[in-house]
Amino acid sequence: MSSNKTGGNVQRIHVGARTLFTPGARQLVKVGMRNIAVVEHKGHLYAIDNACYHHGGPLLNGDIEDMGGHPCIVCPWHSYRIALDTGEGLYVGIDVVPGAAKPVPAVRSKGCKQRVHQVVCDGGEVYVLVDLSGPAIESDSYANMALANQEGAMAAPRESGGRRPLGLHSGMRSGQVLQHTAPSRAGTSNPFSTAPPLLVASGDRRHCSPVPELTVSCCRILPVSEGVKEFYFHRADGTLMRLGQPGEYIELELPLKDADGGHLRRKWTICEVNKKGALFTLLIKARTANPGGASTWMHNYALHSSLHVCQVNGHLTHAHHARRLHELQGRVLWLTAGIGISCAFAALNQSFNEDLAVMPSQARGALHALHLHTDCAVAAVAKLPDLLDLQRRYADPTAAHTYQLHCYITQGQAAAAATQTYVTSGRRITAADIAQRTRSFFGDGVRFLSFVCGPPAFVNDCTDALLSMGVEEDLILTEDP
Length: 481
Hints:
By secondary structure, the chain is α+β, with helices and mostly antiparallel strands. The protein has helices spanning about 140-145, 295-300, 320-325, 340-360, 385-395, 415, 430-440, 455-470, and strands at about 5, 10-15, 25-30, 35-40, 45-50, 65, 70-75, 80-85, 90-95, 105-110, 115-120, 125-130, 215-225, 230-240, 250-255, 265-275, 280-285, 305-315, 330-335, 365-375, 400-410, 425, 450-455, 475-480. The chain has 8 helices and 24 strands.
């Protein structure tokens, strides 16, 4: 495989002889870090970035099907359909036709999600024209990620149906990363750490061996609730080894001094990934009591600032505890206070809006989530409209997937809250509330997994309440220290 410039920003990549591309054949080529899958389908050649825009799945191993007049490659991880000719994400929705007996299925587009490239044949040889000068596309996040592009280029196409031996990337499952043993502070194996931090600052020896330095830049800030904003970040420079999962935390280095005179480091929960073209988003609440602190600095100065990434880690996700949740038939309790709700939203949004939407029906496990939240005011509850929408869509107690939210609002809003059945006003949550609502939702004496997120006093009180109810200690998960 060779490369040469054709003018402007276009690279002309030589792939090989056209005669080698028999029906259904496919070949992996490499342009810098970026892996590109070249696929033959019904006499045509297509080139598409190999790492799927959703979670980086290897498209080279996907089946191909026609959908809405487009040849679509099906991601082998989550069955996302991507048009080989346009890069659009396609799905089957429904159209309600007046007078029709039932809704009519209809193919719909999510817009261009995956970067595709032009393929030309010249003198019997195949070339891919790579032009990255246009606007960013969601799949670019994974095209620039080292872990999603570990496999080397193929010398020749493989035959249709002749599956390539699994490599470092294609042999991984969704959410799986390189497995290293990460000892806890006590020197014993940490049962919650299924993946060590793979984003480590250059020269940082506190964790695994260092990787090339990564910086991210805040490209957008949007208000979410009273005092809370959502910060959108994209990669500014360096190598992205893996994208964190919603619910994990990311540690950023800020241009502020800590108590020892070094740069201040602060951890925030990853809220969503691949949202509106951003690598990830964070929910950050301004701390009025600490005007010189990290959160206030982010609200005032983060936009367009480049920040150093120290690590990504954490265990407060449903994916990290999938085996335990399966054993408990999907029963999970979230106890949150203040901005601690960001952990719950990240996990619940991922499970209900992402995973359930793409998993085949036979692969979907049960999920029954009870969420009890404490805050100072209804207007301060971050992502409340989204959570209420989840509750509306998953309200059926007899269904396999259910979600129930109840908020305890400390400020007196009795009149305003009278019509809001999801609100108890004028007080904090109590141990009696937790016991009563878990019995009502899960049943008496039924085991469930508990996540507790919020200020230290809240976490301690809720943990004590759960233990007094007989909940096993290993079924109570709290925020990382």
